[in-house]
Amino acid sequence: MNFENLLIEKDNGITVITINRPTKLNALNKVTIDELHQAFDAENKDHSTKVIIITGSGEKAFVAGADISEFANFSVEDGRKLAAKGQELLFDFVENLSTPVIAAVNGFALGGGLELAMSAHFRVASDNAKMGLPEVTLGVIPGYGGTQRLPQLVGKGRAMEMIMSAAMIDAETAKNHGLVNHVVSQAELLEFTKGIASKISKNSPIAISNAIEAVNANFKDGINGYEVEIKNFGKSFGTEDFKEGTTAFLEKRKAEFKGE
């Protein structure tokens, strides 16, 4: 599959999706959002892909925001549709993907860029990364899930301050706030993230998928996360991966999971 604004690299069960608009600091326009949806969907359906890493090209930015020129003249209804479609196609889609997604945040992750990083299941940042939601400086609010996911990750008070002040935070502050899991040098970022992905790829894909669903359930209105956990725990006993995992443990060998 060929893309205008994405680069895809596959190696040993790990797929790296790189947003490749360096002259625009990898800003998210309509084409890029559509392509990201297609890429994530294809990799999620490819059973050889165990983990997906999303990052940006160049040394300056992961994603420096949305492409403002595309919506500067939108009406109220146009704006509502933009947010709804974007959340459905990309941000909610990534969050609920059954394949693990790690954001390797290199440089600026602002606005829609931070929202994309927060949609991933967790984040690793380069030490030069800067993160923020500057939408209020444009007279709008975050529309791709930022007002919901940021409080989940850093707490309500910190999220309120970041959103209302539009201030950027550095990578170490993001780590201290729980927004990112690790901070490494930019030169190490991708290999470090691949190292985590490699550990994940050795585990049961079905179990990981069920765990993602159970964790996400806790943050959805009207859904009892404990009940989802109980259901998915029970489902695990009917899988070939469970039989392989328990047999390998008893036989004192490494499990070879097939995702079945």
Protein described:
- This protein is 46% helix and 16% strand.
- It has 260 residues and is of the alpha/beta class.
- The protein folds into 2 domains: 6-201, Alpha-Beta Complex (2-enoyl-CoA Hydratase, Chain A, domain 1), CATH 3.90.226.10; 205-250.
- The strands form 2 sheets. Strands 1-2-3-5-7-10 form a 6-stranded mixed sheet, with helices on both faces.
- A hairpin with a 2-residue loop joins β1 (6-11) and β2.
- α2 (76-95) runs parallel beside α3 (112-119) and α4 packs across α5.
- It is globular, with a radius of gyration of 19 Å.
- The model has no long low-confidence stretch (mean pLDDT 94).
Q: How is the biggest beta sheet arranged? A: 6 strands, mixed
Order of helices and strands: EEHEEHEEHEEHHEHEHHHH
Radius of gyration: 19 Å
Assign the CATH architecture of the largest domain. Alpha-Beta Complex
The overall pLDDT average reads 94
Total helices: the number is 10
Strand content: 15-25%
Query: How does the overall form come out from the CA principal axes?
Result: globular
Total count of strands = 10
Give the helices and strands, then pairings.
Elements: E1 6-11, E2 14-19, H1 30-45, E3 51-56, E4 61-63, H2 76-95, E5 101-105, E6 108-110, H3 112-119, E7 122-126, E8 130-132, H4 146-154, H5 156-165, E9 169-170, H6 171-177, E10 182-184, H7 189-201, H8 205-217, H9 225-236, H10 240-250
Parallel strand pairs: 2-3, 3-5, 4-6, 5-7, 6-8, 7-10
Antiparallel strand pairs: 1-2, 8-9
Helix pairs in contact: 1-2, 2-3, 3-4, 4-5, 8-9
